[in-house]
Amino acid sequence: MARNCEKAQHIARCLQLAIILEVSADKPGNVNLVVEFEGTRVEHFLASSIAAGPSFQEAAYRGTAIAQKKRNLADAGLGELVRWGIKDIAAWQYGGNTLLGTIMLFAPLAVAAGMTPTDEKYTPDFELLRKNIDATIKASTAQDAVAVYEAIEIAKPSGLNSAPDLNVHAQNSKTRLIEENITLHQVFQIASAYDDICSEWINNFPITFDLAYPYLTDHLKHQDLNSAIVDTFLKVLAEHPDTFISRKVGLEKAQDVSQNAKQILELGGVASTKSKDALILFDKKLRKAGNDYNPGTTADITAAALALTTLSGYRP
Q1: CA–CA separation, 155 vs 150, rounded Å?
Q2: N or C of the chain: less Cβ packing under 10 Å?
Q3: Left, alpha or beta for 170 (phi > 0: left; psi -120 to 50: alpha)?
Q4: Is the pTM of this model over 0.70?
């Protein structure tokens, strides 16, 4: 029992550290240590990281119970865990929606990390971790879907008004989820065509595991932490137009942003003297448009890659 608690605490700290590292990097178009959005500053993200800790720890603890056959996989309570994290975040800071996408990625990751056997330093087998993430998500329920809708109502994110079915703002959606027994996995399957957070869920985190994490790990070998994070952010953005931007201003403009990110990487990335002016102009371009051009989904996936990095033993 004591080791289970210690393991859950370890996982929660890894995820909290990942959030702090992600927001501390000076990624273009995002809040960081020196640049803010109107009403949202770095301290709001730091407070959110602390506030989310208990939900991460509980998620990991439930995972250990599932591994020991003391809890059913369908009773992981993914939706409840997402709602718990978002509710606590809203109670501990007044900067608005800071981490909804990140919490949605981290909840199944934390449960799966608790389920996955580790070495003496709590480092998991990533192949098995990924299988456990997939199993956890596929075991979600209609009650999980309702709880996530409630979390979204608390966070109040922008850009969610165009869902073709089961719109989170429709009055009958939550009733339909229960009456028609529509699971959270099924809801995210609907949304996966226009939201990369949902697509990660449905397709077993391909951007996180197959692109962002290996790219980040490789660049940490020869770059400082900030440069490695920013280049990883740019790499993800270059290959996957940000769906947070796309939902607000359209796919064409999101693709234009991705092309800018690709050009900076082709100049050598953040550490290259050739790219410095281009990176400054890119950042100004994104900030000039306010939150509409904030690559928020890319930041969430970068945070997930950092979570894998901290779970694998990396420490700043």
Answers
A1: 9
A2: N
A3: beta
A4: yes
